[in-house]
């Protein structure tokens, strides 16, 4: 008898529990949330610029105003730091970098006997030239101005030193390129057709090198 009472009590408790669950489901009908319980303001994130998407800073000051007073002799002294990788005389051999005779006013990547980096080859295909301003910006920071170049030189920070060096490079040619006018445009202008310097010595005269 006692066992039957216990069994009946357990069975009754189970029935009551099931009935309670059914009634609860009927009385409470859960619905999915249509929006987050906690709202997060994402407007600040959406308006923030993506990493690395900042506008590039202004280019360095143009070198053209300094060229008339630049000192080729001082530039020659500065060039000694470059002789480990380059030669500068006419017909000189290529080293780690190409020979730099007739550098100012020649197309980028113009030497057929030197294997330029892919970055310089691309510039050559685009018709880019080593204008005074291109040389200025490249000498200030080769990898910053032409990403992908294999030139390991960190850059020449002094604007006057760059002007002196470019003035000396200009003399290393059968016919030195015309000096740029003081108000010549910075790097980025199109090179004149045929690689010739325009009348008046615009800085858009093409250049060569690697």
UniProtKB/TrEMBL annotation:
Entry's transmembrane regions: none
Organism in which the protein naturally occurs: Inquilinus limosus
Q: Which Pfam families match?
A: Cytochrom_C
What does the entry give for GO biological process?
photosynthesis
Q: Where is the Cytochrome c domain?
A: 70-173
What Gene Ontology molecular function terms does this protein carry?
electron transfer activity; heme binding; metal ion binding
Query: Where does the record place the region Disordered?
Result: 171-210
Task: Spell out the Low complexity composition-biased ranges.
Answer: 184-210
- Cross-referenced SUPFAM superfamilies: Cytochrome c (SSF46626)
Q: Which terms are listed as keywords in the entry?
A: Electron transport, Heme, Iron, Metal-binding, Photosynthesis, Transport
User: What does the UniProt function comment say about this protein?
Assistant: Cytochrome c2 is found mainly in purple, non-sulfur, photosynthetic bacteria where it functions as the electron donor to the oxidized bacteriochlorophyll in the photophosphorylation pathway. However, it may also have a role in the respiratory chain and is found in some non-photosynthetic bacteria.
- Domain of life according to the entry: Bacteria
- Name this polypeptide is given: Cytochrome c domain-containing protein
